[in-house]
Amino acid sequence: MTQRINRRIAAIEPSATLAVDSKAKALKAQGRPVIGFGAGEPDFPTPDYIVDAALAALDNPANFRYTPATGLPELKQAIAAKTKRDSGIEVSPSQVIVTNGGKQAVYQAFATVIDEGDEVLLPAPYWTTYPEAIRLAGGKPVQVFAGADLDYKVTPAMLEEAYTPATKALVFVSPSNPTGAVYTPEETKAIGEWALAKGIFVLTDEIYEHLVYEGAVFTSILKAVPELAEQTIIMNGVAKTYAMTGWRVGWMIAPADVTSAASNLQSHMTSNVNNIAQRAALAALEADLSAVDQMRQAFDRRRHTIVEGLNAIEGVHCPTPAGAFYAYADVRGLLGKTIAGKTPQTSAELAELILEEAEVAIVPGEAFGPSGYLRFSYALSDEDLAEGLARLQKLLGSAA
Questions:
Q1: Is 148 helix (H, G, I), strand (E, B) or coil?
Q2: Is the peptide bond before 125 cis (omega within 30 degrees of 0)?
Q3: Cα dihedral: 102, 106, 108, 109 (round 10)
Q4: Residues in the chain, pLDDT under 70
Q5: What's the distance, Cα to Cα, between the start and end of the chain in Å?
Q6: Fewer Cβ neighbours under 10 Å: the N or C end of the chain?
Q7: What is the pTM of this model?
Q8: Residue 160 in 3-state DSSP?
């Protein structure tokens, strides 16, 4: 019998972050008091002015019909203007493709520029979707791991060591999911100049650009090295900045030939993004960032709380993240120790033990690269954060 499922599709691993979030919600539905540190989803409601724009859009029948596959012209213009405002990069609206969330932008970017056998340098820890999207395009993800001692940031020397003649692209993410690491302007420039010299594509995910803290500065790699314009694809969206995860509006910005090819792909795959959601995104991008700043301040407060709480546990080392809303803890000091009568040898086993014994859901490091780490999203209420940390300290403090 021939294989029923396409080999590439069959090889896809489920999203570990969504799996943990789903399991936590299922346990909550059973009445268990589970606290979830899994999903990277702001706990704030979408700001009222954005929701109001969506409600107003429902009164216009034009929004109930097909619109251009690559996005509403007004939204593409707003994305270009926002990119100039926030990143200092001049792009044409014709370079913009509005996508069904950031994940579609990520998939389309790899599908458009990666061919069979191409290698893609993937700094690790990485977001779970990147390697799957690379493999779906026929490429080979090449992990370049930087641990807690390097604040989870790779260097040009590390990239050089992993580079081969088959290298086609580099993934660059700052601020980072899952670590919260933010590359300095100087570090960003150094990596951009290395990629320029190698003549490879840079696929840069900038969706956490507005979530930086304590003097950390978001620097787009294309701003740092403008000469990369013909080699860079920017991926972004409204999900994290504006608490709009469920609205599913993202975008990619690319050189003309890449945009043309990706536009053809999207025209066959999804056509236009939901028009009501596009109108909401337009309102988000055209307003000021005051609502965003309020959310950022709350995340900053929680950031200090979680880092202090995790580092109070013997065997845990958690660098202070400079961006996003994640803390990435090195828990190798707990592995091999007895906790609640069990001896976890991997971070996956430790995460499972924590869920069973403390009813706290965390994503293990295996989802993002090497074992020995846990990712905590602190995009949850202050009350849940405090309770979750108390449970962790009680359970893990008993390690022997």
A1: helix
A2: yes
A3: 130
A4: 1
A5: 52
A6: N
A7: 0.94
A8: helix
Structure confidence by residue, pLDDT tens digits, 290-330: 999 999 999 999 999 999 999 999 999 999 999 999 999 99
Q: Find tokens 């994290």 and name the residue.
A: 240
Instruction: Give me the number of domains the chain comprises.
Output: 2
**Residue 15 to residue 129: CA distance in whole angstroms:** 7
Structure tokens at 39: 């999903």
Position 2 in a domain:
no
Check residue 40 and give its pLDDT.
83
Distance of CA 34 to the CA centre of its chain: 24
52 within some domain: no
Question: What does the pLDDT look like over 140-194, one tens digit per residue?
Answer: 999 999 999 999 999 999 999 999 999 999 999 999 999 999 999 999 999 999 9
- Identify whether residues 242 and 174 lie together within a single domain: yes
* pLDDT for 1: 62
CA distances from 187 to 108, 220, 375 (A): 27, 11, 24
Half-sphere exposure of 69 (CA within 13 A, CB side): 13
CA 26 to each of CA 32, 33, 47, 136: distance values in angstroms, whole numbers, following the listed order: 9, 11, 28, 30
- Judge if the upstream peptide bond of residue 175 is cis by omega within 30 degrees of 0: yes
pLDDT at 400: 73
Closest alpha carbon to 200 in 113, 105, 90: 113
Dihedral sign (CA 18, 24, 26, 28): negative
Sequence-distant (6+) residues with CB within 8 A of 278 are 67, 71, 72, 75, 98, 249, 272
- Residue 1, domain member (yes or no): no
Same domain for 130 and 37: no
Provide the β-strand partners of residue 124: 145
| Boundary (domain end) residue, out of 286, 301, 324 | 286
Q: By C-alpha distance, which of 300, 298, 295, 334 is closest to 314?
A: 334
**Residues 171 and 93 reside in one and the same domain:** yes
* Residue 50 covered by a domain: no
Helices 275-286 and 73-87 cross at an angle (nearest 10°) of 30
- The DSSP H or E segment spanning 49 is helix 48-57
Query: Do the beta carbons of residue 240 and residue 212 sit within 8 Å?
Result: no
Same-domain status, 172 and 214: yes
Claim to verify: residue 297 and residue 277 sit in the same structural domain: no
The residue type of 196 is L
